[in-house]
Amino acid sequence: MTSAYLIRADFPLFAARPELVYLDSTATSQKPRVVIEALEHYYREINANVHRGAYDLSVQATLAYEEARRKMARFLGADEREIIFVRNTTEALNLLVYAWGLRVLKAGDEILLTEMEHHANLVPWHLVAVHTGAKIKAIPVRGDGRLDLDSLDRLLTDRVRVVSLTHMSNVLGTVNPVAQIAKAAKEKGALVIVDGAQSAPHMPVDVTGLGADFFALSGHKMCGPTGAGVLWGRYEMLEKMQPFLGGGEMINEVYLERSSYAKPPQRFEAGTPAIAEAVALGVAAEYLMGIGMQNIWQHDRSLVDYALARLDEELPEVKTFGPRGPDRGGVIAFTLGGLHAHDVATALDQHGIAVRAGHHCAQPLHRKLGLAATARASFYLYTTRDEVDRFIEALKKVREFFKDWL
Amino acid sequence: MTSAYLIRADFPLFAARPELVYLDSTATSQKPRVVIEALEHYYREINANVHRGAYDLSVQATLAYEEARRKMARFLGADEREIIFVRNTTEALNLLVYAWGLRVLKAGDEILLTEMEHHANLVPWHLVAVHTGAKIKAIPVRGDGRLDLDSLDRLLTDRVRVVSLTHMSNVLGTVNPVAQIAKAAKEKGALVIVDGAQSAPHMPVDVTGLGADFFALSGHKMCGPTGAGVLWGRYEMLEKMQPFLGGGEMINEVYLERSSYAKPPQRFEAGTPAIAEAVALGVAAEYLMGIGMQNIWQHDRSLVDYALARLDEELPEVKTFGPRGPDRGGVIAFTLGGLHAHDVATALDQHGIAVRAGHHCAQPLHRKLGLAATARASFYLYTTRDEVDRFIEALKKVREFFKDWL
Amino acid sequence: MSLLEELYRETILSHYKSPKNFGPLADASVSIKGDNPSCGDQLELLLKLNGGRITEVRFQGHGCAISIASASMMTELVKNKTLDQALELTRQFKAMVVDGAEPAPELGDLKALAGVSKLHARTKCATLAWNTLEEAAKEAGTS
Amino acid sequence: MSLLEELYRETILSHYKSPKNFGPLADASVSIKGDNPSCGDQLELLLKLNGGRITEVRFQGHGCAISIASASMMTELVKNKTLDQALELTRQFKAMVVDGAEPAPELGDLKALAGVSKLHARTKCATLAWNTLEEAAKEAGTS
Ligand SMILES: Cc1ncc(COP(=O)(O)O)c(C=O)c1O
Ligand SMILES: Cc1ncc(COP(=O)(O)O)c(C=O)c1O
């Protein structure tokens, strides 16, 4: 990969804040200049509403928007008709719960999740469970931070109608063997939904190869603007699905008391979309493809291996979570002695190191770890080895500062 | 108001396209420099995820986001805890349908709409009707483009649980007497929802004065970016309502099989919001308040009166729709002889005039008018009298061009 | 010649005002509805088939000059052609109005619509009848 | 002195490690739970009241040094005060940690938390116990 030291120059925020060591890309990534400029360019030169225009400007806006759809299709190895623009992963998963789960699931059906899910892949299913009587089960997480696949045979009963799981944990960094699980699930006739919020930004994703039915991502975590994400779905599935939000653009004919619906993807994009944001997300995907998703993955991998080795060696008071090995992305949740994660994060912030503290929207996983909160450092294509060093040196100072209280 | 000729200078798109006469602000508005710069500034200097941060950058992002909420509260005369950020009016109305309509309405209940509703305020209710057995009724539109209020007594039965109507029609320009209708509806114990997509950008709105329970707007129509809108709701109502989307940030406690919810407005903002867009929408609202909503309304009013007078006088082949008088905003839907609206719009576009053609997401209203489509010209704070003149001169050329076929 | 003059010629406007083969068709073998939801234009295409050949074709509905003229000229062109020939003409027509290819001589009068390729906003109008024809051919193939 | 040193002093860390009045309280007149959903901190406040006076107060739960120390010192301060006095102290405490006001002398040791006003991310931690106290006072007033 082009050196992270050079890549940094593409990100204006680092120039504006030269002292900052930003280790919270798992929450949201920084944005390269090309993405910010794409927004600017859109608003300065081609802003108009899409689809409905009979004039040139609106045609240009529509072309830009549909071009972004093609770029996202290329990014995911999908067909452009399978790309639905949503706000974020959360909306994508809710769309599935409302348009499919609430309509199809029945009492006695089972929903199989994992213990490492983000709230975005838990809370919407609770709604389904309450309203339909379907039951939620979860694949356990083992002590090493990997899923307990031995339990799969037992859990994957004939009653399981859907398996919805994260591709990569935002706490443990674990990359789950989605293709293997999808295959087993498909054999049971279950639908497979992948929460790609953390995988799409950090590794090559080929949705057809995964064998899943749906894949959700958030643009803001992959160098795109806030407000735009993607739900990918197999076209046969999308065609069968009822709409989620009702309104303009997703219809065919509307009467006062009834309406008929357009084909996918329009069926699932009601109202004026986040046009500029989708366009800029397309630019972000192109930017990442230019650098190479495999290169980004290798970079994340090498930083996390380096950081974990140094932590193990030099900071025995630090406890980290998640697996070691090639199935581990650039996320490190950790604790320092008996200190609370918030106090550690505040102390690191005083040294210019931005890490997150809390349950990272994964309360059930934290409960399993026996903790209310962890601190979390995460890496991305612009993170340098130098920054990892600064993080570790700062952590040593924090340990020193609190030494009587660990 | 500061002259529209001066205001134009705030909008970069007009400098980039000096020949363009943009008459489609009803679909989406152009964006002033301050709004584009707010996005840029956000991404270049303060981008981080909100709410969850233990570090300074995230605190700054959160402060900017919450400041935007306060600005929108000021814009609407509301309390900041009553401002929910959504994508657009469409999402706001769907939120109400899912979180309230589908849960509360029963067979036999009635939903009262109007014949001039946008699809965003029709299609979601169809879902409720199908699933609950509630019945949809509509206040008729009279020949002059106003609502037939005489029918209100008859329509507003004890079975009406909700009255949902547009504040201003995006086709007729009619401003509906919402306060009066809300009062009558409240007397019957019905909930009142106002689609403010067209009113919020163009006139002063004081939600408490309106007497409604909910009010929806789209940021992109009021000088803000795409991807951010607002649902305002009375706090007592919001407090009683179940959530819509489930995910991070809207929860209190999450277990594998159940969850409890945060207070409003967080309860209704699941996942990473459109942060930069919300921040920029706050800047847009401030920009509009700086110019003065009453001034903008007067400006729209004077342009529409001028345009209608010239059309009546000089283009008898043009038929316009909607009321004449102080309850008419800056929107003119029209036909030219027997020509199809698309052909008229294409011809106008060749003269640099951007108008929309179609049913403008109001098929039932067009059916009532006996037309499949109309052309529509609409005005905003940056529209000059000179542009109205150019529109009318171009329309004359179009008439001349098609004269044998009118 | 302006784009407007290039497009809205006598040919097109007269087909618009007096479309050919317009109206119902009793005993149609296939009838298919097409629409452009973004503008509300709607069209129904009715075909009588005999051994893979279009022996009768009519259409009804409403739309702009471009969509109606395109439908009207299309019905004149495909009548008495085989479905395969009609699909080949569809390909040629789309090449002209979508990709801006030189009008194939087989398209005859339809070359009057070549200007649409410069008006992206209107390609959907010009292709509505043809897309519907493709749907009809699919339906005929499966039934 | 760095902000870190200003904040994490002996006072605070020792309250964190050995909180006062921590644990259950049998026969509490009011018990109220408070939480910071954004970080998962949770706290339960238990009060025994007698004629508007707080005769016993304890808390339990988990949180960071700032939230636990704040709760611990708060319980020491409000014990044997009337609810009205406790609410006035709450006002003074919030003025200090939210608005950065000079610590009121009545706050005693709690002035050790004054630095929080410079750490916006942590004001919620410092005020958690106090917000819960306000809720408890509301509950006591209505019951
Ligand atoms: C009256 C009215 N309601 C709702 C909408 C839908 O707005 P949006 O597409 O931003 O959700 C519009 C805009 O087209 C409108 O004019
Ligand atoms: C695994 C995972 N799923 C879902 C989400 C939710 O993403 P968003 O907030 O963009 O909807 C996140 C991000 O926090 C995540 O890490």
Summing up helix and strand content along with how strands pair, one would put the structural category of chain A as alpha/beta
What is the helix tally of chain A? 16
Helical residue percent of chain A? 40-55%
CATH architecture of the largest domain in chain A: 3-Layer(aba) Sandwich
| Strand line-up of the largest beta sheet of chain C | 1-2-3
* Rg on CA atoms of chain C, Å: 14 Å
Form type of chain A: globular
Task: Describe this structure as you would to a colleague.
The complex is a heterotetramer, with 2 copies of chain A (406 residues) and 2 copies of chain C (143 residues). With 406 residues, chain A is of the alpha/beta class. Helices cover 42% and strands 16% of the residues of chain A. Chain A has 16 helices and 15 strands. In chain A, the strands form 4 sheets. Chain A has a 7-stranded mixed β-sheet, sandwiched between helices. In chain A, a hairpin with a 4-residue loop joins strand 9 and strand 10. In chain A, helix 3 packs antiparallel against helix 12. The mean pLDDT of chain A is 96. Chain C has one domain: Alpha-Beta Complex (Sufe protein. Chain: A), CATH 3.90.1010. Chain C has a 3-stranded antiparallel β-sheet with strand order 1-2-3, covered by helices on one side. The model of chain C has no long low-confidence stretch (mean pLDDT 92). The chains are: A alpha/beta (406), C alpha+beta (143). Chains in contact: A-B, A-C, A-D, B-C, B-D. At the B-D interface, helix 4 and strand 9 of B face loops of D. The complex binds pyridoxal-5'-phosphate (PLP) (2 copies). One pyridoxal-5'-phosphate (PLP) sits at the interface of chains B and A.
Q: Can you give me a brief rundown of this structure?
A:
Chain A contains 16 helices and 15 strands. Chain A has 406 residues and is an alpha/beta fold. Chain A has 2 domains: 4-31 and 292-400, Alpha-Beta Complex (Aspartate Aminotransferase, domain 1), CATH 3.90.1150; 35-290, Aspartate Aminotransferase, domain 2, CATH 3.40.640.
